[in-house]
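Collaboration report, partner site 2.

Our partner group contributed sequences for two proteins of shared interest, and the home lab folded both. The records are reproduced in the order in which they were received, starting with the first partner submission.
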Amino acid sequence: MQRYRFADFVLSPRQRVLVRAGRELPLIPRYFDLLVFLVEHRAEAVHRRDIFDRVWPDVVVSDSALTQAIRTLRRTLGDDSREPAYIRTVSRHGYRFVSPVVEEEDNGCAPAPAEAAHDNRSAAGDDPYEPLLGRVARWASSPAEEEERRDAAERLHALGTAEALRRLGVRPGHARARALLRDTRWDVPGSGPVPLLHEPGALAAAAALALLRLRRMARLAAARSFSASIGGAAAGLLAGVLGGLLLVVAPGSQAPLPVAAVLGVVGACCGALGGAGVGAGLSAAEAIGRSRRTLWLVAGGVAGGGAVGWAAEWLARSTLATLVGVHVPVGGGLEGVAIGAAAGLGYALATRRAAGGLATPRGSDRLETVLAMGVACAAAGLALTLGGRPLVGGTVHAVAVASAGAQAVLTPIGRLVGDPDFGRFAGAVIGTGESLVFGLGLALGLTRRPS
């Protein structure tokens, strides 16, 4: 492997170190990968899309994440964006590494880091904390000011997280400052913990942190929720059509072929609503929670699935009672909670290595995620139906039985699986199948990587 010399820096991809004048400069892994990528492709201006594919291949992040990475690299290199000596911004395209580079063989003997004390004093005076603390505590009225606040927070972590928190105290704006310090600690190597619980203004800081992360990821989270809704709709359509065709060909059935189309539409509508709710919950939870990720994702699935489920349950019961005078046990709320929790757990376990964005696994990793979510949702569906809670198929059957002359009674399908009527066993088989298909479709939509 080659290592690279530019100015008084040595960059060793083999040892994954950046050294300047004998002292190692710490970088988080993704920022180090970005620097290597820019140096390797220094003969060209690298497009932002290519950077995202190379540096964040397993997650999707907001554009501001790249801006922050470039800002951190410039600060580490001592570069100036207005007169760049190393990294130049190419308008509406990306970035280019512009410093002359010497390549040499990396024999594994990169310059050893020196044990020199680092002078953290700012050029403005002997106390570098106060001007930075004032910057992170004030309200940002523009994206540029928000980036300045993030830069100040990162500098405070480099100076010392514990001392920054001690000096922050309860000055005006301390809650949003603590939230920003908590958010940026992931981007500065060696930064300390930033606790929120049992601290002054804990609730305000937690709310500020949630809003901060959601605002940065809102567009991507909305796009993922829409993709999850499309995936759920496709899964519901497939399950409904297959169930309808099975009903048509079942022995003793008098259901006409159009029943398959009707059940497909019903399944697509239910799948779209469920996919939108669970997808929104998971996307929001993944954007907000970087620690305790599994807990956040399960909670997000519960919130999204439960909200949509209870709304659909109320609407279905009201519609049936008002329009056709039918009163049947319609599911929705509890079912949404259970399936949303299962989807969140399966997603969290399958994407546990993803960090720093919304997971978009590829290849075999994506297949593993799809299967994990499908199996988890199927297990939840089985538990629900065995407990007597109807899913889409069970609800359709109950409505058909209660309506004179309905053609969607699923009793013939029950006989196919050895149930004399559409009882609990037949309901469990159908419910498990539709939950499995929903989980697969949800996962395919949720993990789709935007172009």
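Second partner submission, folded after the first:
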Amino acid sequence: MTAAPAWAGRLREVGPGAALCLVIAGLSIALRDATGIAALNPVVLALVAGVALGAVLGRPAALRPGIAFTVRPLLRAAIVLLGLQVTLGQLAALGPGALLLAVAVVGLTLPFTIWLGARLGVEPALAQLIGAGTAICGASAIVAANQVARGRDEDVAYALAAITLCGTAALLLFPVLAELMGLGPRAYGLWAGAAIHEVVQAVGAAAAGGPEASQSGTVMKLARVFLLAPAVLALGWWVTRGGAGEVSAPVPWFAFGFLALVVLGSTGLLPGEAAELSRAVVPLMLAASVAALGISTDLRALRRRGARPLLLGVASSVFITVLALAGVALVG
């Protein structure tokens, strides 16, 4: 009798848990699509569903290998594929001033949040995740940064909740504030793209300013997404050498994969369908990974974090908002 191949045994091992997480992700995306509410983030829906399911079912042994697979390899593959959604041509179209603004908001907001978190008594890993989510691109940045920050599942869940709350508030407030300040369409779009957390939140807020604002806001946000890989590499260095030398963080090879796909996608060698496939598949993979984190989250540990991390998220959001507005005024 022929023995089953190794991959078949591995599939049987990870299949149940991974399938459960993918089903949660698919239902979360379907709910967002059915309601038509673009700001209803499937990643957050998947997190809530995962936490609820984990509280009811616990973490059965049969599901654990698949959950671990979804949290690590599947997530890293999603971050790599995200590189297909950004091209070097899009970034160049912004102009040097706007590109410098994107670098500034990421390069200053992340260390500011880590610094303020230490002042507020927030655990370093949680502060790093909140900083990454605020500075770069919300949920995607949080789950990517945790590959080097090595926070607990409760840290990821708290950071996702805080960033979602702050980003949703920005989505609602930015159009009102722009009208009060008399910002032009391009300036408003750059401000929204440079300051708001999630891609869908930034694009949605920018679209309220009309086509020109939508275009500038979308590309500015993509510039921040491009900086995901350099920021994770820098954060990995910080974890190992900048302030926590006793902690060993893995080399984030997925960040190099992300950059490689940005370059490859910019050459025009890949068909346009590749980017479209990435836009369809990456949200599913990210939502599945976060669902797995939710299942593994201990609600009691989450409650013990208290209100200080939320205060940190609000302060970090105010910081990037003011910094981005000042930068837009300088860029013109």
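Feedback sent to the partner group on the second submission included the following. The chain has 16 helices and no strands. Residues 6-35 form the longest helix (30 residues).
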